[in-house]
Amino acid sequence: MGKTVRAHLYISGEVQGVGFRAFVQRVSMKGGLAGWVRNLDDGRVEAILEGEEGAVQEAMARVKKGPPFSRVQKCEVSWESPDGGFGGLFEVRG
After folding, report:
1. Which helix H or strand E contains 19, and what residues bound it?
2. Where are the domains of the chain?
3. Alpha-carbon span 62 to 40, nearest angstrom
4. Which residues of the chain have a pLDDT value below 50?
5. Is 39 assigned a catalytic role?
6. pLDDT in the model for residue 1
7. CA angle 58-60-34, nearest 5°?
8. pTM value?
9. What is the pLDDT of residue 2?
10. Judging by DSSP bridges, how do beta strands 45-52 and 34-39 pair with one another?
11. Taking a C-beta distance cutoff of 8 angstroms, is the pair 31, 53 a contact?
12. Of 4, 12, 26, 37, whose CB is crowded by the most CB atoms within 10 A?
């Protein structure tokens, strides 16, 4: 098993009302990641992905492409210290 990392993402473009949060949840769960995803009032989507480094990188690559009907214009990433505080779960928030 590789190093555990945490990526904090802010995704902008046409990312609300197109199934983007459910897409991020599916991609993350398939990769064994924990964290959450939510819509922001300014039209962006925010997500935290925590897990094995390779799985986080793969999930981020898919998120940057997005699901059908979305159009990702920008994905800002900041790396944070993982803390394992999600209990292995990935949830969709507000």
Report:
1. none
2. 4-82
3. 20
4. none
5. yes
6. 64
7. 85
8. 0.95
9. 82
10. antiparallel
11. no
12. 37
Percent of the chain whose pLDDT exceeds 70: 99
Dihedral in degrees, nearest 10, Cα atoms 52, 58, 59, 65: 170
> Given 6, 21, 62, 93, which residue is catalytic?
21
Residue type, 8: H
CA–centroid distance for 79 within its chain: 13
Pair 50, 86: CB distance under 8 Å: yes
Torsional class of 13: left (φ above 0), alpha (ψ -120 to 50), beta (otherwise): left
> End-to-end CA distance of the chain, in Å?
32
- The values of phi and psi at residue 78, to 5°, are -125, 140
Separation of alpha carbons 91 and 24, rounded Å: 10
Place of tokens 């609300």: 16
* CATH class, range 4-82: alpha beta
Active site (annotated) includes residue 21: yes
